[in-house]
Write a structure and sequence with these properties.
Elements: H1 2-47, H2 58-63, H3 77-80, H4 97-131, E1 142-148, E2 159-162, H5 169-178, E3 183-187, E4 191-195, E5 211-212, E6 215-219, E7 225-230, E8 245-251, H6 256-259, E9 262-265, H7 271-280, E10 285-289, E11 292-296, E12 326-331, E13 353-357, H8 363-374, E14 379-380, H9 385-389, E15 407-409, H10 414-418, E16 422-427, H11 430-443, H12 451-454, H13 458-480, E17 484-488, H14 489-494, H15 496-506, H16 513-521, H17 542-561
Parallel strand pairs: 13-15, 13-16, 14-15, 16-17
Antiparallel strand pairs: 1-7, 2-4, 3-4, 3-7, 5-6, 8-12, 9-11, 10-11, 10-12
Helix pairs in contact: 4-13, 13-17
Family: Belongs to the WSCD family.
Keywords: Repeat
Protein name: WSCD1 protein
Amino acid sequence: MAKAFFRLQKFLRRTQFLLFFLTAAYLMAGSLLLLQRTHLVVQQGSRGTSAGQALPAPEAMLGAGLADPRTAQSPSPRLLAGTAVLQEPAPDLRHGPRWLASRNSELRQLRRRWFHRFISDQEPMQTAGLKTMKHTAEHKGTYMGCFSDDSRERTLKGAVFYDLRKMTVSHCQEACAERAYTYAGLAYGAECYCGNKLPATASRPEECNSECKGEKGSVCGGVNRLSVYRVEELWAAAPRRRNVIYRGCFRAPENLTDTFPASLIQPNLTVEMCSEFCSKKEFPLAVIRGRECYCGYPTGRFSLHGGADGRLCSGMLNASSTGGKYCLVYQTPVQDTRCTDRKFLTTKSKVFVALSSFPGAGNTWARHLIEHATGYYTGSYYFDGALYNKGFKGEKDHWRSRRTICVKTHESGKTEIEMFDSAILLIRNPFKSLMAEFNRKFAGHLGYATDRNWKSKEWPDFVNSYASWWASHVLDWLKYGKRLLVIHYEDLKQSLIPKLKEMVEFLNMTVTEDRLLCVENNRDGNFKRSGAKQKDFEPFTQEMKDLINRYILTVDEALRGRNFTGLPREYVPR
């Protein structure tokens, strides 16, 4: 018994010693880790960025001398000293492909950090806006009930709006009333549909159970269910947006009755009469030939390509007869909804495709065209809440999910590029791209930077930093891309359907001609800046122009060296 007790006592002493030893080791390890972190903070502080400080804008980071990750292990004395100048190569090596490729690694890190800082800055602002929103908004329209909603045979199809963050009943009602629609319907808590016909199939009231994204306590439809309001009584108070756009003079098809689904013969016919008639019928085109008014869509039989001389349609509105070889065409406020339905891929894509471009090169516009042409969402390497809220649902999907038809990216560099099996490389005039990205940086997707921004020191710093990125982005994709389709923004703008066909075929998709014509009819999308804001000064100095022109020549030569079409002649220096 004594022997057993002695063994137990010996074991407990050893355990006590072991516990003491482990505790001491743990405390020492923690102290070493704390000292190491403190050393890193001090070292980062000497480079110009403290551990708790928000990341500065790209140009500020360039000024601080951002190191290439490959050289981070042995930083140069200049970087540790916090120098305000980037290491510059010899003058004869600048603007060449090698220098651009090495500089691009710095700029890629710059862009990534700046982009995520921009997004994180936007989120608190949007959240604050939601908190201050009044939850007791008055619904002035007459509630008609809950109805079934079939995306293939949608009744309310005159106009479609998305706002996945701020949709309210009043917002939808006002949007439909402004366009003089009779009904406004809400679905999924964030989608708004307008039209002049009440949906045929009623549903139980409890099936409309989705709370409005921007208005707690209010119902905005449900899954395949519409909360429908009659808004005709709001027309008088709503600002009218019945803009009718003149599309031109065209040769009339041989049989207008077969070409257009609706028609009207009216003495003293006016543009307003015909447009109002076609809007009520929910058609995007109003076609006038003398006393005849026709309504319909752009189709293969009447594509709105190759317009005639406007003089051939002179006197058409005052004609009292019917018939004739030519007709006037107007765009009504009604949205062409033949191509607005979109979804995620039902099975994972076998080919991982990038939609790559320099920022400001029209990537969002290209995504709009691709989504409406194919009927599938596009994804994004980033998450932009503003795009997601306006209907780009692929923004929230993980970029490697392969549920989207292609993935937006501004990244470059061997590792990032080789992740993709193929890519559509979108290139735009660098002068236009730089201005577009500068506008987005200071005023969002639809705004314009102020004159004060353009005349500040930030603009020349921005050009100096981003102009080289424009060139190195293209060079990297030409070098490391496995299978490329190069699309020039200017060519896409000028010849939309042929270029869009190329993109769709590259994505291994087939679409109908009518769907492509629908995309052309809705070509602008929701993220086009309204007009070109004219500045009373030239933002580019001669020094900036010389710098950018050298990059243009480098990229043009690289494209031709890979047997691609060179850059458009309109901006290649001659």
